[in-house]
Amino acid sequence: MKMDAPAKTKSEETKLLLLKAATTAFAYDGFHGTSLKKIAREAGVNQALISYHFGNKEGLYLAVFETIVGQIQTQVGPRVQALQATLGIHPSSANNCNPDPDSLKQALFSIADAMLELLCGDAGHEWALLITREQVSPTEAFEILYSGFMGKMLGLVSQVMQMLKPGLSEEEAKMFAILFMGQIIVFRVSRTAVLRHMGWQGYGEGELALVEQQLHQSICSWLAE
Question: Does domain 9-55 have CATH number 3.40.50.2000?
């Protein structure tokens, strides 16, 4: 018999409300343009509870990024772990793992699909705004993003590329990883231009399937060069 998830406490519910309101406020108005009063009002809680749960405005801002990274890890994490296992760097893997090229290529496809589906989902818009702000004017929050998933993802893709094409230099493999991520992120960051150019109303199942197909073909082209 499946057990129901334990009910959240009042304190946990308050934190979630504040994080949700803060994510939206920081995404659209930026750190300096957002007031704690507005966040508390949107969350429907007393402003003093922000200090109680997060210490101050900076603490709440960083908590927003920790939450984003946690959600990304939850959704993409299993595929990353599968890739780590394929590479033989996961705790459950054999140290002498020697993955075949097709397994590595399929792992890249899986990572690309997971990232695309995540970023093109409903939550992706506010995440993209926040991540873009940190790219332009980095703060402590950027370190949370980079150490939480960006750096790990880029490092894994670089490693896969070097295994698939041993003749590549480390710098060339890193550049491939950047291009790999860039091809995915553009569908979120440049969403409006993409939809206008393609004549789409949004990213439905059919649209995402087409994008994934093109991403796979692009990856295969890079590997064939």
Answer: no
